[in-house]
Amino acid sequence: MDFVMSCLSVGENGNLSIGGCDVAALAEEYGTPAYIMDEDQIRENCRVYNRAMQEYYGGNGIVLYASKALSCKYIYRMMKEENMGIDVVSGGEMYTALKAGFPAERIYFHGNNKTDDELKMALENGVGRIVVDNVFELESLNRLSGEMGKTADILFRIKPGIDAHTHSFIRTGQIDSKFGVSLENGEAENIIKMADDMENLNVVGVHCHIGSQIFELEPFELAAEKMMTFIADLKDKYDISIKELNLGGGYGIKYTEGDTPIDYDKYIQAVSKVVRRISEERGIPLPYIVMEPGRSITAETGLTVYRVGAVKEIPGVRTYISVDGGMGDNPRYILYQSEYEAVRVNNPLAEKTVTATLAGKCCESGDILIKDAKLPEIKVGDLVAVLATGAYNYSMASNYNRIPRLPIVMVSGGKSRLAVKRESYDDLIANDL
Ligand SMILES: Cc1ncc(COP(=O)(O)O)c(C=O)c1O
Ligand SMILES: N[C@@H](CCCC[NH3+])C(=O)O
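Structure for Diaminopimelate decarboxylase, as requested:
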């Protein structure tokens, strides 16, 4: 039996090990609960994408890390070192990246309701691209750019009308979505024509993102086909040249044994064939390609280690194993009924003889990490690791019940260090007046 995360192994002492570090020793050193991430694996994932960009597009493009998956200064510094760009979706993410010294020109600013202050911040700092979502934003951006004496390089977020098979909350490419303008009814075409006449804006590209945790090739190929056709139509009809095509992220990862992600390399190869074919057929130059993977860069590189505080067997009904974290550090079950796998830190490959629900410590019945998890015998005091929590956990964490947020421990080559400190009770009251 294997782990769902390839960076895990079993150490000589029989404990779970990540990036050459004993998880029990890390739990001792940094306390529980804690996120533990394999830095080398994050870097390798970036390199897989950068190599694919080189191989299939001859390097004519950029890979952005969609930093909503996990945003902190440490990771932005890593992304800079790995020659990645980043996607930010709020003033807060942008601020964090800039404070980490991330180069502004490699930042793409997304969002369906950017405030004037956020747009000004992007313009002031020379953020590389602003991905415009709607006509109101377009007008604000043109006005603000004029007032500030700047020209903004923009892309448009477009709904290509593709319904990828994933949880309805994380689908974004279909017509009924709050994100972007739609291809179908001429909305996209109209807004681009409008922007083309605006003095302070430079229309550089188009963007789509069809959803997240997608396991199929076809929706990506279809999106690329629709977007390339749209680019060619704009050229034919209005002589508008779109130089940049941003195809978003969304590649699925392995949370449980049942998940069957495709090699990222294969997605990129398949999509590049579509892009090249339409470029030839329609006689338009190959656009500069942008990709925005988030989850697939960090999810499988991280785990969350918890300590068990209570085991409650309700005869004939269910057994609850309660740990010292929960929906505050991982809200994905309560939001999407997401599935995870957990292992006992000691002897993690022991036979799974127990079915029990791994519950959090929040005052909420739905505060569950894994419903009916398959586990080995677990007793109070044991350490349990929930796997593949490296994306959309820390970044979606809350202080519900005034529980301090967890630290992020990075491991690399058998050594560990803190990327984010554990919040203290004083941090919790720091803004209380
Ligand atoms: C615009 C945009 N780009 C990229 C991503 C990253 O998606 P994923 O983490 O699924 O790769 C998202 C999130 O779904 C997004 O909204
Ligand atoms: N936050 C989501 C995905 C949304 C992606 C952002 N558009 C998750 O945890 O799966």
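The chain has two domains: 8-38+300-429, 110-293.
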